[in-house]
Design goal:
Keywords: DNA-binding, Metal-binding, Nucleus, Transcription, Transcription regulation, Zinc, Zinc-finger
Number of domains: 2
GO molecular function: DNA binding; DNA-binding transcription factor activity, RNA polymerase II-specific; zinc ion binding
Number of strands: 2
Distance between the termini: 21 Å
Protein name: Deformed epidermal autoregulatory factor 1 homolog
Subcellular location: Nucleus
Organism: Scomber scombrus
Number of helices: 5
Length: about 150
């Protein structure tokens, strides 16, 4: 049962990793919606078409979170939730100790998780020109791909 058990365990870990990545993606989308809502509420008196577009986004956002009330307890709870989300590693969900040095929007628990997530994050990172961290990532990404296959 040696190799078969190993393959089953490997498949389980791959499934769990994929599930965790999906959850982290959902968390990032939620954070983006929260940021949109904050900017929309702050700029409600916007000018021109931008104001109308933001208003539409605000209505869409509010319809998605209509279950929340506006009392101070729920605001405090949402602030705490946002703080906890901001401190989670986007790759594995553990407590984050560092953030992406390019965009400062994504948090990681270790350099291993940061390197592992770079393949996906590089498309959304606002870092221009692909500095040193991109060059450091390429050889490691190649090694990770060999291990997965």
């Amino acid at each position: 049962m040696g190799p078969v058990g190993g393959d089953g365990q490997k498949n389980t870990w791959l499934y769990l990793e994929e599930l965790a990545n999906t959850l982290m993606s959902n968390v990032q989308q939620l954070k983006a919606l929260i940021d949109q809502a904050k900017h929309t509420e702050g700029g409600a008196g916007g000018k021109g078409q931008g104001g109308r577009k933001e208003c539409g986004l605000s209505q869409q956002f509010h319809s998605q979170i209509s279950f929340q009330s506006d009392d101070s307890d729920s605001k405090r709870s949402s602030d705490i939730t946002e703080l906890i989300i901001n401190q989670m590693c986007v790759n594995c969900g553990r407590v984050a100790m560092s953030e992406c040095t390019g965009c400062h929007k994504v948090n990681y628990c270790s350099t291993f998780c940061q390197r592992k997530d770079w393949k996906d994050h590089q498309h959304t990172c606002c870092q221009s020109g692909g500095g040193v961290s991109v060059q450091e990532e390429e050889p490691i990404t190649g090694l990770d791909m060999d291990k997965v296959k």
